[in-house]
Amino acid sequence: MTYTSSKVLTFEEFIAQYGDNTRYELIDGQLRDMEPTGLHEAVAGSIAGRIYVEIFNSNFNWLIPKTCLIKPPAAEATALRPDVIVLDKAELSKEPLWSKEPIICNGSTIKLVAEVVSTNWQDDYARKVEEYAFLNIPEYWIVDFRGLGGLQFIGNPKQPTFTVCQLVNGVYQQQQYHLGDTISSELLPNLQLKLDDIMPI
């Protein structure tokens, strides 16, 4: 992740200039280049595919958009672009921007977000944990397939880690999984998934 400009952007300026460019998100007016790699995108695609199978098999009225921004109501000049986001179709009619732009403003529309960790691991493990909890998103997955996170987040020695954050009384309870572990999700109780299954070749 790099900061690409010293100029502070408003949310509106970001949407006008970078809204269609999936490389960028905006945090507190700072433009972030998320520097996606092929491996990063492969992992994100595998996660989205696994979730979609569960949505289809369970007949949930949810969808996974190709691209989507989150505009947290309490954060000025912030537009988050999760690697994978699951939306409740029934709530989309309450979204003020959705009919014109793939932008979500209400946390109640979001069932799950997943972030594939890259060089911006500080955002994934700290800032976004707070933002997504404040939005009352039931589950947040942090997929650190390269073991990049700080020692205080993934332990020592560093290793590939899949963290499931489940919202309990407004705070995320975190459960970590490593290679070989079966991942558990309250939101998707029939999910059969291990970190091994989504590791890039």
Automatic annotation (TrEMBL):
Family annotation (CDD domains): DUF820-like
Signal peptide interval: none
Alphabetized Pfam families for the sequence: Uma2
InterPro entries: Nuclease_put_TT1808, Restrct_endonuc-II-like, Uma2
Transmembrane portions of the chain: none
Highest taxon above the source species: Bacteria
Protein's name in the database: Putative restriction endonuclease domain-containing protein
